């Protein structure tokens, strides 16, 4: 029977963990790596505690003449060791105790192939929490690096260049102006979608309650847009948004390029915040092991207790914008 | 306890009824007898339930998983026990149903000679276990055939140490017939124009490459020669230095090469001198190169000052790299990784 220690750890492995997703790897792949790593660690611990390494069996296999004798000896000596044990549960026979299909893992925000940054995984019972977080649609912050002057067919650096243009006339102020107008139009769109006149008392009451968000999970809304860095053709913007995906963000960069009478493509997209989880909490892939992951889970669970509204919204009226046709 | 209460109540009721109805006492007593009989029957049933052997539910659930068959038979079968003692991973073997079927039909006497022969070839017990785990059908081979195959190697001037290394590194080697092995060795000698000594060096360095599908080796040669543009001498140099390169997937190889040659601007001659860097993952290369670029110390030309060796770049762990090669700290490197 397995040692209580591995069972205890297995039982403790339920909750949310926050990991760092590098670019150019899929979330699905990352999940698989995580599961394999955790199961291997657990099984190893289990075996180590259950079957401690036996005393090194001395076999004189150096000279070939003694080989036959040595095999027989080692076989018989091993026999006496293993006779008392029930071989049915030996790791060489039954295989690892914890297998990949036993560990349920699901993600609560999906980052595309080219996106890097904060990613939340729910382990075992935590998959439910992950689902709640996903369905609650919390805001996320992205830092996107774009380059003016070239447009590519897929919007990324890796794509084929389809158009070139000048960019030298673009100043930091111009970008900031465009971005703030975009942000304002998004806010306006939200109130229009609610079916409220912007000059009415109703709109004021709604605005007082805080930012409103769509009921539909398919409509991306931007709450904050600002340019944090502009240097040569490359620029970096920070986006606070909801319901976004990778394609939407690359389109946003292309749109910015077009509005400035130039063209632009995306270089990197990085998720720097997911509700209350930031890069600080994210665990790098090289640090994934049983110890670090349980520690990270503990940290994340404490964060979740502090910010309960991520999982469970106490006041649904406050933040829901009903999507009615525009009058 | 409950049953007792029930019984006394029942008897009381019966008595009341019997007192009410005259002349029925006899009947009532008979009823009491009946209840007692029932009681006996109940206890008998209880006993029989206890007699049914309890099946371990964990055993039933495990039937559905790999490792179940070997777990079921291991305590009964002598062969399986002996194999476990050798360190054979039965769980791995069971993933191939045909192999497991074959192993279960064996008797230990049949395979004993083969195992002893492997031992005589100079393999350690764990290595024999590893070889059987990887290639259980090795036990199917005739002992005479094995001897002929080893003889062939001796005839081709392989030393005993070389043969030991070949057999322990490539458990599939001994299942190939002498004709096959001869063809394969001939292919390598002809394709890369190697001398006899070089063939032996290549075989001992990477025995698995020899039995690797010739089609893939040809494809990788094409990648190295035509797509990367190495000359025949350089290819030979790469093959003898790092034979593993011809075993890796062509896409991975090309990706690494493209990053090395196009992004890091490393000339072909340097790569041919240090073919290990072609085996490095692109991700690792990218991370470390970009960190050096950020620090402004990406100087890979050995004739200029502040030279960073490419081998130092790809080898060792991140702690060693960030402190010794990049002259920075691990914390900084980890923070840098989160900005990528």
Automatic annotation (TrEMBL), chain A:
Record-level Gene Ontology MF annotations: pseudouridine synthase activity; RNA binding
What's a Pfam family in this record?
TruB_N
Which residues, by range, are in coiled-coil regions? none
PANTHER family assigned: PSEUDOURIDINE SYNTHASE-RELATED (PTHR13195), PSEUDOURIDYLATE SYNTHASE TRUB2, MITOCHONDRIAL (PTHR13195:SF0)
Protein name (Swiss-Prot/TrEMBL): Pseudouridine synthase II N-terminal domain-containing protein
Domain Pseudouridine synthase II N-terminal: where? Answer: 115-243
Q: Which InterPro entries match?
A: PsdUridine_synth_cat_dom_sf (IPR020103), PsdUridine_synth_N (IPR002501), Trub2 (IPR039048)
Q: Which SUPFAM superfamilies match?
A: Pseudouridine synthase
Name any Gene Ontology BP term.
Answer: RNA processing
Instruction: Tell me where on the tree of life, at the top rank, the source sits.
Output: Eukaryota
Concerning its family, UniProt says:
Belongs to the pseudouridine synthase TruB family.
Automatic annotation (TrEMBL), chain B:
Q: For this entry, list what GO says about its biological process.
A: mitochondrial ribosome assembly; mitochondrial transcription; regulation of DNA-templated transcription
The family database entries (Gene3D superfamilies) matched by this protein are listed as: Transcription termination factor 3, mitochondrial (1.25.70.10)
GO molecular function terms here? nucleic acid binding
Q: Which UniProt keywords apply?
A: Mitochondrion, Transcription, Transcription regulation, Transit peptide
Cellular location(s): Mitochondrion
Q: Which GO terms describe its cellular component?
A: mitochondrion
- Record's InterPro entries? MTERF, MTERF_sf
Residues annotated as transmembrane? none
What the entry lists under SMART domains is as follows: Mterf
- The domain of life is Eukaryota
- Family, per entry: Belongs to the mTERF family.
Q: What is this protein called?
A: Transcription termination factor 3, mitochondrial
What is the scientific name of the source organism? Psylliodes chrysocephalus
